[in-house]
Model the fold of this input.
Amino acid sequence: MALEQNETPAARSGASRVMAILDALAAADPAVFPDGLSVADVARAVGREKSVVSRQLRSLLETGMVARRDSGRYELSWRLFALAVRAGDQRLTKLAAPLLLRLTETVRERTYLSVLSDGEVLTVLSEGSRRSIEAVNWVGRTIPVHRSSSGMALLMDYEDEHILDMVRRGGSGVSDREARDFLAQVQEARRRGYTVANRIFDPELLGIGAPVRDFTGRVSAAVNISGPAFRIEPHIHAFGGHLLSMVRALQASLGSDVRPYAETGDL
Amino acid sequence: MALEQNETPAARSGASRVMAILDALAAADPAVFPDGLSVADVARAVGREKSVVSRQLRSLLETGMVARRDSGRYELSWRLFALAVRAGDQRLTKLAAPLLLRLTETVRERTYLSVLSDGEVLTVLSEGSRRSIEAVNWVGRTIPVHRSSSGMALLMDYEDEHILDMVRRGGSGVSDREARDFLAQVQEARRRGYTVANRIFDPELLGIGAPVRDFTGRVSAAVNISGPAFRIEPHIHAFGGHLLSMVRALQASLGSDVRPYAETGDL
DNA sequence: GGCAAGTGGTGCAGAAAATGCAACGCCATG
DNA sequence: CATGGCGTTGCATTTTCTGCACCACTTGCC
Done:
């Protein structure tokens, strides 16, 4: 299915005329049209006069929405990509804040939003429950990647070899056994959807984490719940579900329709 | 700089009106507008009647390019992100990402993948000591072609006259001497295989770049390493070698057997 | 309360587009 | 050298958009 008649019923407004063309360019299978689409290709796809399409494409070219290859064929331009990246990136913390708060209120434990920074886990946002004891403010601090549920989540998409590399390089005195344990945890998390760090960072702490993917599908951040192991341990599965549905909501507002790994279905 | 009058001279066609609005929504500083932009905000940003903007936004809303928050304010939406993942060269970004990560881990400096977009250098991917959120994120932004090692790499195959043209056209106040210096750098890079921008973009930054060629031999992207000059300067030759071998691997996976300019042999 | 300012949205006549047809030059292919 | 597909343009007609005035509503502020 490379090209198809996009007979949108309400295809009358100017914006949807533009959209029809952009959609046609986006829907083109790069394997079938490796060099972009010609004016005639687009005209067939949207079911319009080639003269109309020709003029519209020129207009889109001027605005930078589409680009023209050497061959004269058209494709969506990098500028669209840039637009989305800027918009998606800026919104991470803003959109995460209310969702994080809601998650905290649900699980009654402290929650965190982190990103990978220089091979370590950097906490950028945190919401606490009144109930929790810890007064430590983690925002702005980093912890080694191998010692948290967020670290596992942030490395989730990396190749196994890479994960071992990063873990070994991250901590100074990381034993081989530790690294392999970490990898095993990540592998299990890939199936389950969320990571669990049971008494790893601290003998009394338990963390549950999940990766946040941006619109390109890359893991750009991680959300985790952390608290006393004795309190969280009985609810790991339930909390994991809450975490996944929170991440799903966050990704939706970030423009990502990528679903978390191994959707469990429960929530 | 949150909102500004985008008085594009050729802002008459329907498509550019749409683009202006999308630009305004993407460029809005989330710190200033945490909840999206109102109709009036957008109208001010694009310098048009609010009635026009109101109608246009509704149209964009119907197509799914923008979404409306509970507050009634607008933000970019899923349709744009869906288009964006299809924009540019998906093969390139997908294949480059892991290689870029490995390069970063080897040289321990931030690395970038850029393309030429509308006469400027657009950063598409970045790996390395990752964005600490508040740190400037370059992905999605453009810089003038004459101020980076990537710019040099992207223009490497053009004729000298053409390079001077593009440099002079790119920056508004580019001196003749600057342009000629740039050209000299490019000519040296052609012999060496990789470009070096020593304290050009910033008095303390040093960049090393290399062009990425597609199977036709055309330069379609550039990879560069950038960081503090004092830290990189002693390793220019070694880093250049690493860069070239990374680019070679990338080109191989892109289906290109074109060898980089002036293969140095080392790696 | 009540005023003022700001907001999103609508109706309408004139202004400014897009539309579709035909035609042109162009490049391949047979 | 004819053929067919391509991208583009001229032009009269149609359609849409524009900008103004105006309305209804909310917000902040005496």
Observations:
- Chain A is about 45% helix and 20% strand.
- Residues 14-76 of chain A form a domain with the Arc Repressor Mutant, subunit A fold (CATH 1.10.10.10).
- Strands of chain A lie at 66-68, 74-76, 110-117, 120-127, 142-144, 195-198, 205-213, 219-228.
- Chain A touches chain B through 63 residues (CB under 8 Å).
